[in-house]
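SEQUENCE-TO-STRUCTURE ENTRY
===========================

Subject: a protein chain together with a token-level encoding of how that chain folds.

Sequence line: the amino acid chain in single-letter code, read from start to end.

Question of interest: how does this chain fold, as expressed in backbone structure tokens?
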Amino acid sequence: MERAVVVVVVVVVVVVVVVVVVIVVVVILVVVIVVVVIVLVVIAVVVAVITISEKTPAKITIAIDFSVVVVAVVVLVVVVVVVVVVVVVVVVVVVAAAVVLVVVVVAAAAAVVAIAVVVASAVELVMVAAATFMPANISITSSSNNSSNIIYTGF
């Protein structure tokens, strides 16, 4: 029974650690993806808005193209929403798997404890039956005519 409790505790600790690690990794991936998307959007906007004037080739003018900015913001929002949805789904699946694993381990531990109780009860019944139906002392004596007598002394 103590082993079953130790097994359940160990499995629960392992499941909690795995869930925490998965959540941390997913959060790190989300941060990295968002940073990369922001950098890519900034690069796209900078490339789109810097134009070289044809009248004065040496002069660089910055012209903001709002359609490019809007498209970049929309793409960024869509990517962030998709990443958040994926993260939520992954976390829900991992937590559900952890809960199922804990339930299975607890059920297995309960089955082991139940089997141990049944075996202990059966052993106790056999011992009680042996003590009840068998004599406590058996005395075997031999007579002079080579015949043996079995005498029960006490119950």
DSSP finds two helices and four strands in the chain. The first helix runs from residue 2 to 49. The helical segments are 2-49, 66-133. The chain has a mean pLDDT of 71.
